[in-house]
Specification:
Elements: H1 3-8, H2 45-67, E1 71-82, E2 86-92, E3 102-109, H3 110-118, E4 121-129, H4 130-133, E5 143-148, E6 151-158, H5 163-171, E7 178-182, E8 194-207, E9 210-215, E10 225-233
Parallel strand pairs: 4-10
Antiparallel strand pairs: 1-2, 1-8, 2-3, 3-6, 4-5, 5-6, 7-8, 8-9, 9-10
Length: about 230
């Protein structure tokens, strides 16, 4: 199995050519509704007032509980890298944007990631020390300790998008879901070919100290699990 074939296993509905999808995927929202029932009814105005106060308190508790729920949204994630180089992870809120909201260079090499993909589940955890970077927003943390499927594999570094990165993202603007190879010499004569996998991810924000990205497989495709977690450890 070649490396690009292994990457395509993550998106089994794709053909061997670059797939294009302009469909917008809307995350499924689940709501928990609670019905309140009064077992006793009284015409006394004082008791009615107490009942209204109790209902108001319950509504406030619901609002507080709802605000504590993790927020979810859909983003576009691209994993790319040279065959013999490090893997990069890029997040965009819109496929036409060439300015990523998050760009990380991972210490894991491309062939190592392919080996993990062949196992079926890829879970990348990026951790930092809360005592040192407690007030720093997650997307502004400069360096992370990296774990892949429970094993420490080095570090991940936040990067600014270079001209070459922006040019690459521009060439993939029409691709929402797909995997392929950008030929050698793209952007500069000395550059190597770049393997990439692009897909929709569910972005889950737990709180100020944790968030995650989960690959969304195309409809009716079992696919494989791939998740990236960002968290501040105690």
């Amino acid at each position: 199995m070649t490396k690009i074939d292994a990457l395509r296993r993550l998106l089994p509905c794709l053909s061997h050519t670059i797939a294009t999808s302009n469909a917008t995927i809307t995350p499924t929202k689940k709501r928990l509704s609670t019905s309140l029932r009064e077992d006793l009814k009284d015409t006394n105005q004082d008791q009615d007032k107490d009942s209204q106060d109790s209902t108001t308190t319950t509504d406030l508790e619901r609002t507080t509980s709802a605000s504590a729920r993790p927020s979810r949204s859909m983003v576009i994630g691209t994993i790319f890298g040279q065959r013999k180089g490090h893997v990069w992870f890029c997040i965009q809120h819109h496929r036409l944007s060439t300015k990523p909201s998050l760009l990380l260079e991972l210490s894991i090499l491309t062939h190592q990631l392919v080996e993990e993909i062949c196992c079926g589940i890829v879970r990348i955890a990026l951790e930092c020390d809360r005592s040192e970077l407690g007030s720093c927003p997650l997307h502004s943390i400069p360096i992370w300790t990296m774990y892949c499927n429970g094993r420490k594999t080095g570090f991940a570094t936040k990067r600014k998008a270079s001209h070459h990165n922006r040019l690459m993202l521009k060439t993939m603007q029409s691709t929402t879901v797909g995997a392929g190879v950008i030929p050698a010499g793209f952007g500069s004569s000395g550059s190597e070919e770049i393997m990439y996998m692009r897909a929709n991810y569910e972005h889950v924000v737990g709180n100020a100290d944790s968030e995650s990205f989960h690959l969304v497989n195309p409809d009716e495709c079992a696919g494989q699990e791939l998740s990236v977690f960002l968290m501040k450890s105690r």
